[in-house]
Design a protein that fits this description.
The chain is built from eleven helices and 24 strands. By secondary structure, it is of the alpha+beta class.
């Protein structure tokens, strides 16, 4: 072992470790553990970004976990970091996970008990294993999901544009570094720094990582369920103690909610916390929440039903999920909802009425801000966007009493266009009493392509789930647009041309919104099943 592969501090010892798989591939890992007598329970993370990084963008450094009485193992997955082999993404992980768990249990520093932790890709590596594999003692997958179409790469039949490209190019750059291809690495890095990846990203992926997951995802049709893979963890793993962490502004929130339901269906008692978090920015108490969970199940052997805690975006406090009353609003307007904020109305008493035309100019597509898909994920004030003439707004009267928005918003509306392709992008916001702010709460999109788009028909737009209490005097607003760039690629107005950055092939699209019969409602969390499609 080289001098730099081991380190001893006053409290923590570090060393490298390697696992020789049955097929001859070596996987490298880094270990952190307390000085003194062991063995200790193990915390395992398997990730593709380099084991020394150890997901410290969101999680405490492994040395902190070691000081809490754990041996921490962070492993480079096959074909990434310093591990041998070829990286194939999620499809490779099941067998390697099972062999890794056997290896961890055999380590002299491990007392045989294993907890898995990590988010995003590192959440998936906790869940994928052969059906007969021995499960870990507990799992804490955060911000991940099992359906590559609905939980990783698209919604409303539209690709996540900047997310797919940014993540795919990050992995492509790591592959270039492994090949010692400096020019490829620098080309990718420049594109990410100057923003040109939003236009040139697909070609960069085809050139530098043609077999990568992101390249495959962008080539697949998000409207074709049969073309996509959905992963199935062993039922015995889903029954193990599980802590699920999600964020209101995280793109994988629907995946975490699906995991919660699947664990319950398998007979598990999962614990669920959804907080004020984006994918890379978590709330301060997340580390102590994880520590409490691992101490409970790895040190004290305690079991029991898992709790549910949701952050109320309105009250700014943690709550158990409420049992909300049914809520419904209709859209009303006289055709000026894009120009006069008093024209478009959100009404909880009367039926929808009126018609609205919405003109989409691909030269200046409506940008996406905040929320779960944009480059600026998180809370946002969308006042300036709602003032654009290509955004239709429908605003309620001041609320007579407080209202709990709890669950998944969905909009039913009659919509069509004069071209064989359009996007309908919907945002729900709160207008606090006494303020000019427009606080964006939730957003969603639907993409319609082909001759179907040229007929006015009922469309259903599903938005990101939320919990937000609005006070008496607040108003609600629904904003409708035909683009959310670069969260999703700009619809070209023709099914023959792929979406992406605006081009000379993109057409001006005029949408017709018929408001009669329009309904904005919320599917509550306790309905048993939230919709993804």
């Amino acid at each position: 072992m080289s001098a730099e592969s081991s380190l001893i501090s006053s409290h923590v010892v570090e060393r490298d470790g390697e696992l020789l798989l049955r097929d001859g591939v070596r996987l490298m890992a880094r270990l952190w553990f307390p000085r003194g007598d062991g063995p200790w329970p193990a915390l395992l993370m398997r990730q593709p970004y380099g084991r020394r990084l150890a997901s410290t963008v969101t999680l405490a450094h492994p040395s902190w976990w070691a000081r809490q009485g754990y041996v921490v193992i962070v492993q480079d997955v096959r074909g990434q970091g310093d591990s041998e082999g070829t990286f194939h993404g999620f499809s490779q992980e099941a067998d390697d996970t099972a062999q890794t768990h056997d290896w961890v249990r055999s380590l002299p520093e491990c007392n045989g008990r294993i907890g898995c932790y990590g988010f995003s890709y590192q959440g998936m590596t906790q869940l994928l294993a052969p059906a007969d594999a021995t499960p870990p003692d507990c799992l804490a997958p955060a911000m991940a999901g099992l359906d590559e179409r609905l939980h990783w790469s698209s919604e409303g039949h539209a690709h996540w544009w900047h997310l797919n490209l940014g993540w795919g190019l990050q992995l492509a750059a790591q592959q270039a570094r492994r090949r010692r291809d400096r020019s490829a690495w620098e080309a990718i890095r420049r594109a990410l720094e100057d923003g040109s990846y939003l236009r040139d990203g697909p070609e960069l992926l085809k050139r530098h990582d043609p077999d990568g997951m992101a390249c495959h995802w962008l080539a697949q049709d998000p409207a074709d369920r049969s073309a996509w893979r959905r992963h199935d963890p062993p039922q015995s793993w889903l029954r193990q103690p599980m802590l699920l962490l999600g964020g209101w502004w995280d793109p994988h929130l629907m995946g975490i909610l699906d995991l919660y339901r699947r664990s319950e269906d398998a007979g598990g008692m999962p614990e669920l916390h959804i907080g004020p978090a984006s994918h890379l920015q978590w709330w301060p108490g997340a580390q102590t929440l994880l520590l409490r969970f691992f101490d409970q199940h790895l040190k004290h052997g305690q079991t029991g039903p898992g709790q549910q805690q949701f952050w109320d975006l309105g009250r700014q406090e943690w709550r158990t999920p409420p049992q909300p009353e049914p809520l419904r609003w209709s859209l009303q307007g006289d055709g000026l909802a894009c120009l006069d904020p008093a024209s478009g109305r959100l009404d909880s008493n009367d039926a929808g009425c009126g018609e609205q035309r919405l003109v989409h100019d691909p030269w200046r597509p409506v940008p996406a801000i905040g929320g779960h898909l944009s480059p600026s994920a998180g809370p946002a004030d969308r006042r300036s966007l709602d003032e654009r003439a290509d955004v239709a707004t429908f605003t309620s009267a001041p609320l007579e009493q407080s209202v709990e928005l709890s669950g998944q918003p969905q909009l039913l509306i009659q919509a069509g266009a004069d071209q064989p392709g359009f996007d309908l992008c919907v945002v729900l916001s709160r207008l606090p009493q006494g303020s000019a702010a427009v606080e964006q709460l939730s957003c969603g999109v639907i993409r319609v392509l082909g001759t179907e788009a040229e007929h006015v028909a009922e469309r259903r737009v599903l938005l990101q789930p939320l919990l937000a209490t609005c006070s008496a005097g607040d108003r609600l607003r629904l904003s409708l647009a035909a683009a959310a760039w670069p969260a999703i690629g700009v619809n070209p107005g023709t099914p023959e041309h792929p979406s992406g950055a605006p081009s000379a092939c993109h057409r001006v699209v005029t949408m017709t919104l018929e408001l009669a019969g329009s309904v904005l409602s919320l599917n509550p969390f306790n309905s048993g099943r939230l919709n993804s499609d």
